[in-house]
Amino acid sequence: MANLASTYRNQGRWEEAEKLEVQVMEMSKAKLGADHPDTLTSMANLAFTWNSQGRHEDALALMQDCVEAQQRILGPEHPNTLSSLATVSEWISNLYICILVQLSGVVLNHQQSPACGAEASYL
């Protein structure tokens, strides 16, 4: 199921990917436990899908929960922890850029902003 969800995500089929990823995460929590590395991976995958759907705040909150658990379970230097932490940093940066663009009122060209899901552009 996780592989099919990944395929859907790679194809941009966000709703189908999300549905499967939620099932994978819930099943993993039930069978392996909330702190199992596979469960943490399923959390991160769902966060990526939410981010791609424009659910940036939900995605960021889930990825932050994932990072906290990875630091506790895998350790702060584990590659998965470092990768997830880098993702959190990137998503926070994108949200700050979005906020700055919205506050400045400057729109240089009308392209879709990945951070905001609205028409805006970066300075």
TrEMBL record:
Pfam families: TPR_10. It comes from the Eukaryota. InterPro entries: NLR-like, TPR-like_helical_dom_sf. Transmembrane segments: none annotated. This is Tetratricopeptide repeat-domain-containing protein. It comes from Neurospora tetraspora. The lineage of its organism: Eukaryota, Fungi, Dikarya, Ascomycota, Pezizomycotina.
